[in-house]
Amino acid sequence: MGLFDFARxxxxxxxxxxxxxxxxxxxxxxxxxxxxxxxxxxxxDGIVTLIGIxxxxxxxxKAVLMAxxxxxxxxxxxxxxxxxxxxxTASSSVRKAxxxxxxxxxxxxxxDTLSKIAERVYGNAEDYMRIFEANREIIKDPDKIYVGQxxxxxxx
Length: 156
Known about the structure:
alpha+beta
């Protein structure tokens, strides 16, 4: 499962019908906006398309994770203009920017805690706040993560 694919049956429950999904996801994202300007959200058949502008790849990553970690979403299409990227090479560069070498995307497994993940990744359980800070828009409480949730793990 890559960055853009999600487990449809888990996540934050925001909507009860496909008709109100785009509006509910938009409201959720603007309330917790990581820095996307001119945000638009389209929802169809479990696929969310995000349209917007940002100057940082991390912001686009967080937006994809926010939308994808919603119950009923199976995939996210990111049509996010990252202004840091040269517009002539944007189409291939945006996907590369969303999956950079300095970040690992991780899917929470049964028994995981941020401390256990930090111990595995960094060798120190007390570094769990580093993971929490990198996912503040996705994780509201470091003690409340759920199986199947996708998060960012900043690498050294």
